[in-house]
Hints:
Layout: E1 2-6, H1 19-32, E2 36-39, E3 42-43, H2 52-68, E4 74-77, E5 80-82, H3 87-93, E6 104-108, H4 118-127, E7 131-135, H5 147-155, E8 159-163, H6 164-167, H7 173-184, E9 190-192, H8 206-216, H9 218-233, H10 247-255, H11 258-273
Parallel strand pairs: 1-2, 2-4, 3-5, 5-6, 6-7, 7-8, 8-9
Amino acid sequence: MYDLHCHLLPGIDDGPVDLDTALEMARMAVADGIATIACTPHIYPGVYENTSDGIRAAIDRFRRELADRDIPLALVEGADVHIAPDLHDGIRAGRIPTLAGSRYLLLEPPHHIAPPRFEDTVFELMTQGIVPVITHPERLTWVDSHYEVFRRLALRGAWMQITAGSLTGRFGSRPKAAAERFVGEGLCMILATDAHHPRRRPPLLREAREAAERLVGSAEAEHMVSTRPAGIVRDLPPAELPKMLSSDVESAIRSGDAASKAGLLARLFSRWSHD
């Protein structure tokens, strides 16, 4: 499996405070079946002033520590990028890294307030050739009142990353319900741990894959943790990766017909439950 949102690097943001904690997280990830992790510290102006060069240097140092201890975990670069006025310039100048140097960028919205021009910001990134991967929308306090915004963004080409722990209930009932809605409606492209700590925010992905399988079947669950993340690392265009929605689900969602959509999803859940 691939985990493309993980705060694994020690002492660089609010992830592990020291090397021993980071190594414990790495061992947990490997034991869980994760083979590749994107190290994605925050880039948050005024709080975490990380840059591409600093992140790559930290990855190189941690990669050597893993090799010295025979921990078989591949690392790629990335960042958990907050919306900021200089976001576009930072990407163009190379100060802000994409996932594994690809066209895909982890984009973190504010947790407690819908940012102004959010949709415009996402679409402007797409005009630059960037595929925004919006992190943990299910955990935003404003997701319920703005769910249609995320649906529109997904249908127009942005990607949604749901947190593994949300789907398994580690963040409580409200994020779990929102995560199940994103996954069940075909709006979740990838699952990732967003791990910060071996116990409080652990790097566990398998349990979420199993939870997704109960909702949407084994093939789609595998796409969320393997096929699509591997495609990101290889910088494949979205058109070459499995679609997030089957044509019938997409048509129902686009139509806005809530009754039809509910009936369709009920039929799909019934089918998946017998897979």
